[in-house]
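A quick aside before the break. I want you to see a complete sequence-to-structure record at least once, exactly as it would be stored in a machine-readable document. Don't worry about memorizing anything.
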Amino acid sequence: MEGPEMDAFRTVFEEHYPSVRRKLVALIQDEAAAEDLAQEVFIRLYRNPPDDPAAIGAWLHRVLTRIGYDYISKQIRERKLKDKQEQFYDSGQQQLASGEEVVLRRMDQEEVREWMEELPERDRKVLMLKYSGYSYAEIAEELNVRPPLVGSMLSRATSKLKRKVIRKSVT
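That is the input. The structure line, written in tokens, reads:
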């Protein structure tokens, strides 16, 4: 395209480019992106000019607004996607850590069970009831003992378990 049409386009470009760019900068708050989008506005003008050359200012404003809002929408979608990916990654890391924690907890529980099996039946039962959330009164009822004895029984059973743990860790 040479000649009068190109001269007319160049004139429109030189006249309106600064205001189109300024409006895009104000709309999207990013100068580099506004430069690119302003060029996109004028590419659209070059390819599909308005039917009425007198309405070129309004046409440019409508197109730059649409392009600017499309850009903002795209940025928001990309930010949301990035946030979701980060959350997924972070939750995956937490699941991994919690998976490791589960394995360690299971190993600890198995070890504690082994130590508990070495305790007398009554000591094992009092500790299991206590750590299962039973109250002293409920433990006393379950073991058919007076409630004041439960504290002493727990203390003795805990001491025996600690001694077993210490002996096992030393050997």
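Two observations worth writing down. The chain has a mean pLDDT of 86. The CA atoms of residues 123 and 157 lie 5 Å apart. We'll return to this after the break.
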